[in-house]
Amino acid sequence: MTLKIYGAPRSRAFRVLWAAEELGIPYEHIPTDFQDGSKKPEFLAINPNGRIPAIDDGGFHLFESLAITMYLAKKHGGAKLYPATPEAEACLWQWSLWGANEIELPLVQWIGNRYVLPPDKRSETIAAEAEAKLPRPLAVLDAHLANRQYMVGDAFTIADLNVASLLYTAWFNKADLSRWPNVKAWLDRILARPGALKARKLREV
Predict the structure, then answer these.
(1) Going by DSSP bridges, is the β-strand pair 27-31/54-57 parallel, antiparallel, or unpaired?
(2) pTM above 0.90?
(3) Which residues, by range, are in coiled-coil regions (predicted)?
(4) Which of 6, 88, 119, 205 is most buried when burial is the number of CB atoms within 10 A of its CB?
(5) Per residue in 32-84, pLDDT tens?
(6) Rounded to whole angstroms, how far apart are CA atoms 56 and 61?
């Protein structure tokens, strides 16, 4: 049965769509917005939390975007995108959770209030406070990428996708990432991958 992906491309569903493209999985994208769409009974049967994204994989329902991308990579990617050893797998979890805990919220607040929201909805105070929280964690990422091309091991994995998807809006809006040259160079490479380009087409419409 075809994988069904519920969500809006300009949400965390982006990383799920990107993962499906990287893995070459046939899927049906079911546009589901943050408000009305995610509160419909048919969607609540997939994710009772009423949040996107979620998937229906032949009757198996799963929500939380990081869980979804790692599930898809492990099921369909094997050694291609999912690390083979327990140690490398742990590093995948580490960096995926690091992204969610250390940079996601300040990135959303910074980019939203500096670039994305309508001008009358922006708060420069929130943007500045959020931006000030990013140098320390991004310096950690920049140091990690100083002598390597990828997050885990010597090839692209779902760890790269999970972290790069968080930084995508900053990169796309040309936010100043020059303080972290290794991060910028890594994003330039990762977001130019064929799978990323296909997912970006959905998001950048």
Answers:
(1) unpaired
(2) yes
(3) none
(4) 6
(5) 988 887 899 999 999 999 999 999 999 999 999 999 999 999 999 777 899 98
(6) 5
